[in-house]
Write a structure and sequence with these properties.
It is built from no helices and 11 strands. It is mainly β.
Length: 106
């Protein structure tokens, strides 16, 4: 992921790293756990969503210091990158489609 002068990368082994884009200097690098990550991370506002294949979801703050905002477990494995639409987060897991967010106002 790229935003401003920062780059965020997530390895398949679950190592999340934030870098200065111009120099490649590591601002932080942390292992999210002993899981595999196949889905691409997703940046929404100042939050980075990282979904592991076992359904574990880490939400990180886009900041120069490492911060886990939330950690959740979704039923079923997850290999697909989440999507955002109308203020909702859609996550496809094995046998489930999760819609996270406020209900639509009619």
């Amino acid at each position: 992921l790229a935003r401003g002068d920062r780059l965020f990368v997530l390895s398949d082994a679950g190592v999340a790293t934030l870098l200065e884009a111009k120099t490649g200097k590591k601002l932080w690098s942390e292992r999210l756990g002993p899981r595999l990550y196949h889905a691409s991370p997703l940046l929404v506002n100042d939050l980075v969503y990282c979904l592991a294949e076992d359904g574990t979801a880490h939400v990180l703050r886009w900041a120069d210091e490492f911060e886990v905002v939330a950690k959740n477990a979704l039923a079923g494995g997850c290999h697909a990158t989440p999507a955002v639409s109308d203020g909702r987060l859609f996550v496809r897991a094995a046998g489930h489609l999760w819609c996270l967010g406020e209900p639509a106002k009619r």
